[in-house]
Design goal:
Chain A: Keywords: Signal. The structure holds 2 protein chains of 2 kinds. Chain A is of the alpha/beta class. Helix content of chain A is 39%, strand content 20%. The longest helix of chain B is centred in the middle third of the chain and has 50 residues. Classes of the chains: A alpha/beta, B alpha+beta. At the A-B interface, helix 2, strand 7, helix 7, helix 8 and strand 15 of A face helix 5, helix 10, helix 11, helix 15 and helix 20 of B.
């Protein structure tokens, strides 16, 4: 690059930067969208980007926020977590966004956390996760373990009479932590050590023959057996295919999954899977006027009536509406003011209830257990009577049981109620 | 479980006495109400009415086709045609025509209710004309043994003509005999039947019998348990070998194309996995075309897709060779980087054309399901993939050893200058060899689409395994690839039960590292350009 072009380039960049900051101050509020549009996670995250664009468009049609138009800024983190860190910094510093909606994996969230703390911005994280975390700058609109895993296990114990458990998961932080919590919970309930089988597989595992035959063997010992699956995205298809081919039906050994939703089933022939279960806080099949309207507008936005909606999309819907309300209440998009205004904010969810942001930055959600149908949708077979408040620190793990998160009164994400100090690990 | 059984039995007897009071009409009308447990009780009562229509009601409920019309509150059976639903009254058969969307609500069933329905239907279908239905009934009776039904089952067994159903029935009779207070001779016979059955289910029942019963029955039962344990160890071994062969066949398919491009030509082709992916997407496109235009041909879709996948992937391979790789011969690092770049481009191209989501590739009917071989279950798709892998291997061997192009390929590989002097167009042979390797990768894609996700990332998961197999087997020797694939597959599957899937994979990799230290040229080393260069 010659000196002249470099100078010109620099000048151009500077003017562009000035232009955008000036505009941001005048009539638009920028909303950052930080999802993978390429790489392994693109399969799940592209939909979330589209859902966010739709929500922003709808809000603008309804008059924007604080009389200003919302301007979405989309970046692609390419399923690369160090890159996510850089892109988050770029969004906040260079693009000047006031809030970011993004990430799918826990690795992504952990990678961008320091940026949000350092630059004091806001992240809405829409996916169910393993808990054991609460940060001042992050709002968790997906399920904590007590809003998904624990109720699903309760359902299996009470309705299906399950006594023997296979905890199968992909080998990374979310399944390992969730299974640790579940194991402690099951032992609390009096399940014997030999009635729990724990199994981990690598990412993208495709040869399930040994494991499925182990499960069949484990399940033929005369006690009702169920599989609790924290198997991640791509590995699910060959897993369910192997189950179907081996002739293991949901009536013999039901599988309850925490990462299989409508989107994942859309790449699969679901006829052999009828009756297998999933636990979520939202299903596309739930019959409420809000959900009907959401699906209609989603189809219209995306221009394809075969596209499905799923749980993390609903989480973005709730999170986005909460942010809009909090900004209007605070009268500004300033991060500190919005973070202070968010706890206590209420927004309708798509299943007919009103979710509330809690002081621990998690939200209240209903829990549903659904059975897979032959059309790739879920039929709700069980739901909680009330909304369940998200618990950041699990009560079933000895190390996290005394911890508590409260950003309103205690100003602390990991307050130890035994030693009465903040920041204890 | 026992409690449930007692409740169910109580409900049935209760229903029998109430049958006169509660007609099928009343019972069906109460189906939509209450919880799943209430519905389970109603199901038992419906089965107890003895009404001819009861079976149809239960079947429809089991399928999830039973709904309640919002307009008149009738329980109807729903039939879908395209996006429209049509309703007929389940009892009167009256046609209510098309149902507006959300104009009816489904009577929900869950897994435990499905089990109740099957158990209730069991006794009703023991004498059904369709053998498949009788088999299902016998199996249901085996799973929920009820001594009260022993006589009914024995009668059905005496009248049974189909050998498979008769076998299932005799097992159901045996379990019922062990469960109840049958005479000793009958119980001993039951133990023999279950011992013959020889699986874990039978073992569980026998172990319980060994603990509960007394005298000769207990003795026979514990003998049988020991016998089953012994047999199961043997079958476990056989099963591991089979799993290993099956994993090996997948490895072989993925690696065999690379055995040519990398093994024979010495090109480090990082885009090999993407050529596999292209083959899988070709299968998807063929299936889509068949689904929309010629649904009757669906079972043939893979046979149609195979040559197309070979052609498409082979064509892309030739383009890669002519466009990029031929300028980089003898520069392995640059080749590696360039082909890696190509692999990213191919991935993103597929993502842009077909979207990032998984695509559904169906199994033709001959590749679905499984069959029992002794105590092991062999799934058809795995068996066919093994056959396919061996067939591809045999054809490749034939091409390389017995055809003129194969001769030229070997000549160019062994001594390019001399081959060129003999009048062989080495450039053309290079392109054809690369194309052959790529085409075979495409064929692998057809097979892998049957067991794995068809997504843009499909290839990435196989590239490391493929290189592993080729390097282990010895570059340049396709027999080495065969031996390498199957020995790695079997080693992996024997390790997996002991160490878990994650550690098994790591151990195999560690083993290969050590092995390559000792024998850098793999199992079967050959001399060729790849080695001499």
């Amino acid at each position: 690059m010659t000196k002249l072009t470099r100078t010109l380039f620099g000048l151009g960049a500077a003017t562009m930067l000035m232009g955008t900051t000036a505009m941001a101050q005048e009539d638009t509020i920028k909303v950052g969208i930080l999802h993978s549009l390429s790489g392994t996670m693109a399969i799940s995250e592209t939909t979330l980007k589209d859902a966010m664009l739709m929500l922003v468009e709808q809000q603008n049609a309804a008059g924007g926020v604080l009389g200003k138009t919302l301007e979405p800024v989309v970046v692609d983190i390419a399923s690369d977590w160090p890159l996510a860190n850089e892109k988050a910094r770029q969004l906040i510093e260079a693009d000047g966004v006031d809030v970011v909606f993004g990430c799918w994996t826990s690795s992504c969230r952990k990678s961008v956390l320091p940026v949000f703390e350092e630059l004091n911005s806001i992240l809405f994280y829409p996916v169910q996760y393993e808990g054991e975390e609460s940060q001042r700058n992050v709002f968790y609109t997906g399920a904590a373990p007590n809003q998904q895993a624990i109720p699903a296990v309760d359902y299996l114990i009470e309705t299906e009479g399950v006594e023997r458990w296979v905890l199968a998961g992909t080998d990374y932080v979310y399944p390992r932590t969730t299974n640790k919590i579940l194991e402690a919970y099951l032992k609390d309930k009096g399940v014997a050590e030999e009635d729990i089988m724990i199994n981990y597989t690598p990412f993208g595992h495709s040869d399930w023959q040994t494991i499925v035959s182990d499960i069949a063997e484990f399940g033929s010992a005369g006690k009702k057996t169920a599989v609790v699956s924290t198997i991640n995205g791509d590995a699910n298809v060959p897993f369910y295919k192997e189950l179907g081919n081996k002739g293991i039906s949901a009536e013999d050994i039901p599988v309850v999954a925490f990462s299989v939703g409508e989107e994942e089933l859309s790449g699969l022939d679901t006829a052999p899977l009828v009756g297998h279960l999933a636990a979520w806080n939202y299903f596309m099949s739930i019959d409420t006027p809000e959900n009907d309207a959401f699906i209609e507008s989603w189809w219209e936005f995306i221009g394809n009536e075969d596209r499905v909606t799923n749980d993390p999309m609903e989480a973005h819907y709730i999170g986005f509406n909460m942010w809009v309300k909090a900004v209007e209440e605070a009268g500004t998009t300033d991060a500190d003011a919005v973070i202070a205004a968010l706890p206590g904010t209420e927004a309708p969810n798509l299943t007919g209830g009103i979710s509330t942001m809690l002081p621990n930055h998690h939200i209240t959600k209903p829990v549903f257990v659904g059975e897979i149908q032959d059309d790739g949708q879920f039929d709700v077979v069980w739901e909680t009577d009330d909304l369940v408040p998200g618990d950041a620190w699990s009560d079933y793990l000895p190390e996290s049981a005394p911890l508590k998160s409260d950003w309103v009164e205690l100003e602390c994400g990991n307050y130890n109620t035994e030693t009465e100090t903040c920041g204890a690990e | 479980m026992a409690l449930l059984r007692v409740l169910l039995a109580a409900a049935i007897t209760c229903a029998a006495s109430l049958a006169a009071a509660q007609s099928l009409e009343d019972l069906v009308a109460t189906l939509p109400e209450g919880s799943y447990d209430d519905r389970g009780a109603v199901v038992a009562q419906i089965a107890g009415t003895g009404d001819d229509r009861a079976l149809k009601v239960l079947e429809s409920l089991l399928e999830g086709d039973l709904e309640v019309l919002d307009s008149n509150g009738r329980v109807v059976e729903i039939r879908s045609e395209g996006r429209d639903d049509f309703a007929t009254d389940i009892l009167t058969g009256e046609d209510y025509g098309e149902v507006p969307s959300r104009g009816s609500s489904r009577i929900r069933v869950n897994n435990s209710l499905r089990r109740d329905i099957r158990a209730a239907m069991g006794t009703m279908t023991l004498r059904h004309p369709d053998p498949a239905r009788r088999l299902a009934a016998a199996q249901a009776a085996f799973r929920s043994p009820d001594p009260d039904q022993a006589e009914l089952l024995s009668e059905a067994l005496a009248a049974e003509t189909d050998p498979q159903v008769a076998e299932a029935l005799s097992r159901a009779v045996a379990v019922a005999a062990l469960e109840g207070a049958a005479p000793e001779a009958a119980q001993l016979e039951a133990v023999a039947v279950l011992s013959e059955m020889g699986n874990t289910e039978a073992r569980t029942i026998l172990a319980a019998a060994a603990a509960d019963a007394e005298g000769p029955v207990a003795e026979a039962a514990s003998d049988a348990v020991r016998h089953i344990d012994q047999m199961q160890r043997l079958w476990g071994l056989a099963q591991n070998v089979w799993f290993g062969l099956s994993l090996g066949s997948v490895l072989l398919l993925a690696a065999i194309g690379l055995a040519i491009t990398f093994g024979v030509m010495g090109v480090i082709n990082m885009a090999h996995g993407e050529l596999v992916m292209i083959g899988a997407y070709t299968t998807f496109v063929v299936q889509e075309a068949i689904r929309s235009s010629f649904p009757a041909l669906f079972d043939w879709s893979l046979l149609i897709a195979a040559p197309l996948a070979f052609a498409v992937a082979g064509g892309v391979g030739v383009a890669i060779e002519r466009g990029v790789v031929r300028f980089l011969y003898g520069r392995p690092l640059e080749t590696l980087l360039a082909t890696w770049g190509i692999s990213l481009m191919l991935q993103q191209a597929v993502r842009s054309i077909f979207g990032p989501n998984n695509r559904e590739v169906g199994n033709p009917s001959f590749m679905s399901g499984a069959f029992e071989l002794g105590q092991m279950t062999v799934t058809w798709n795995r068996l066919w993939i093994l056959v396919f892998a061996l067939a591809v291997f045999a054809v490749l061997l034939f091409v390389l050893k017995k055809t003129p192009i194969g001769l030229q390929m070997r000549a160019v590989t062994q001594n390019r200058a001399m081959a060129s002097n003999m009048g062989i167009r080495t450039g053309w042979v290079d392109a054809m060899t690369f194309g052959l390797g790529a085409g075979i990768a495409g064929l692998a894609g057809v097979a892998l689409s049957q067991i794995d996700n068809v997504s843009p990332n499909l290839g990435q998961s196989y590239i490391v395994d493929s290189f592993m197999v080729v390097v282990f087997g010895g570059a340049g020797n396709i027999w080495g690839t065969l031996a390498g694939a199957f020995s790695l597959g079997i080693a992996n599957k024997f390790l997996e039960p002991w160490t878990g899937a994650v550690l098994a994979k790591i151990l195999v990799l560690v083993f290969i590292i050590l092995f390559i230290q000792k024998r850098p040229r793999g199992l079967f080393a050959v001399r060729g350009r790849a080695v001499d260069a």
